[in-house]
Design goal:
The chain has about 160 residues and is mainly alpha-helical. It has a domain of about 70 residues. The chain is about 80% helix and about 0% strand. It starts with a helix and ends with a helix. About 0% of the residues are buried.
Length: about 160
């Protein structure tokens, strides 16, 4: 081996060492970036968790409010039923034989207020429906005009 070969070999080895150093530095930077990314993802996950826990807490509060409101409604219905019974007892009204009273197992403290009110009220026949809009004279005249206009347009297209 000549001196030139030795020198180029030494330069090649030095260049290879530089490249290995650069690769090692790049690997270290990538590892730092991955750690930073993982840290950012962990922070984002914590924020999502906090947001979801707030939503859950608010949902629980709304459910508790709805439960309290339902309890108040039950109490009001019970009071209304009690008043109705007292009125009925004082007036000695004839018993109501509606389907709700005949078929229902009874009205208790856990009965829906709407059901309790329906059971306490008597049956009313449905009211007759209003006349349809087509039976009104101004609507009928408008329909007749519009249909005549359309027929005239169609005939004009056919003739031309």
């Amino acid at each position: 081996m000549s001196e030139d070969d030795t020198q180029t070999t030494a330069e090649s080895e030095a260049r290879g060492a530089e490249l290995r150093e650069n690769v090692a530095l790049t690997d270290a930077r990538r590892a730092e970036e991955e750690v930073a990314k993982a840290h950012a993802e962990a922070e984002a996950a914590e924020k999502r968790e906090e947001k979801l826990s707030r939503k859950e807490r608010k949902a629980k509060e709304r459910a508790e409010q709805a439960q309290a409101e339902a309890q108040r409604a039950r109490e009001q219905a019970a009071n209304a039923e009690k008043l109705a019974r007292e009125k009925a007892g004082a007036a000695k009204a004839t018993p109501n034989l509606s389907g709700a009273n005949v078929m229902s197992p009874g009205v208790g403290s856990d009965t829906d207020p709407a059901v309790a009110a329906a059971a306490a009220s008597s049956y009313e026949a449905p009211k007759p429906a209003e006349a349809s809009p087509l039976e009104r004279p101004e609507v009928a005249a408008g329909v007749a005009f519009a249909s005549a206009f359309l027929i005239a347009r169609i005939l004009k297209r056919l003739v031309d």
